[in-house]
Amino acid sequence: MTDQPDLVVAVRRLTRAVWCLAAVVAFLMALFLWPYVGFWIRTGEASAAPAGAAAAPVSYDPSEDNDFHARPVPSKVERATAILLTRRERRGGKHVAVISEIVKKAPGVELYYEVGDEYSPFAHAPAPECDDCEGDGEVVFFTGNPAMMRESLSYRDGRVDSLGGMPLDELRRLAAKAAGQPATTEPRAASPSS
């Protein structure tokens, strides 16, 4: 190689270095893109299934509704698997929430509360300005099976202020409509079929 000029030797070495660098970059890109290529290959195989084969239905679990609190009231009532009304009572120097009514319970849903049970998450020591709040309570929305609490709203004097002052009777009417039952304005207690 002594008869070649130094410039030619340097260019050849640089060319080999560039090709080696390109090979390393291509290898790293292949490692990075492999999961995506595998996804597209698997997707192609799934779409090549026989025409008679039915795709599995996509299941929707209403308990995974992350926007439940943002929904309009009729949608909340429809999606809820159970709706309870509690009322505050003073027991032993504290306020406890006692379930006064099961407004809605979807068929087959496991609800671990009955009318008259204490709903302990709402028990609290009364504040000085809360001496006269016995009788008021909360509307509690549950979703899923078994029923899990998703949202609670306080009511006072038979109205839910955070729902624009909606009367509890309107909530009962919406629940009866969602369950396909005739609407009543009388409070219902839990029954085995409700």
How would you explain this protein's 3D organization?
The chain has 194 residues and is of the alpha+beta class. It has 3 helices and 6 strands. Strand 5 and strand 6 (166-167) form a beta hairpin. The strands form 2 sheets. It has a 4-stranded antiparallel beta sheet with strand order 2-1-3-4. Strands 5-6 form a two-stranded antiparallel ribbon. It has 2 domains: 1-48; 63-179, no CATH class. It has helices at residues 6-47, 73-79, 168-179, and strands spanning 82-91, 94-105, 137-143, 148-155, 159-160, 166-167. Helix 2 packs across helix 3.
Structural descriptors:
194 residues; 2 domains; elongated; disordered C terminus
Instruction: Note the main sheet.
Output: 4 strands, antiparallel
List low-pLDDT spans. 54-60, 183-194
Task: Tell me the strand percentage band.
Answer: 15-25%
> Which H/E pattern describes the elements?
HHEEEEEEH
The strands making up the biggest β-sheet line up spatially as 2-1-3-4
Tally of separate helices: 3
The whole-angstrom Rg is: 32 Å
Mean pLDDT: 76
Number of separate strands = 6
Helix content: 25-40%
Question: Which term fits the overall shape?
Answer: elongated
Summed up, the domain count is 2
Multimeric status of the protein: single chain
Output the structural class: alpha+beta
Alpha carbon gap, first and last residue: 96 Å
In short:
The chain has 194 residues and is an alpha+beta fold. It is built from 3 helices and 6 strands, in the order ααββββββα.
List the helices and strands and how they pair.
Layout (H helix, E strand, L loop, with lengths): L5 H42 L25 H7 L2 E10 L2 E12 L31 E7 L4 E8 L3 E2 L5 E2 H12 L15
Antiparallel strand pairs: 1-2, 1-3, 3-4, 5-6
Helix pairs in contact: 2-3
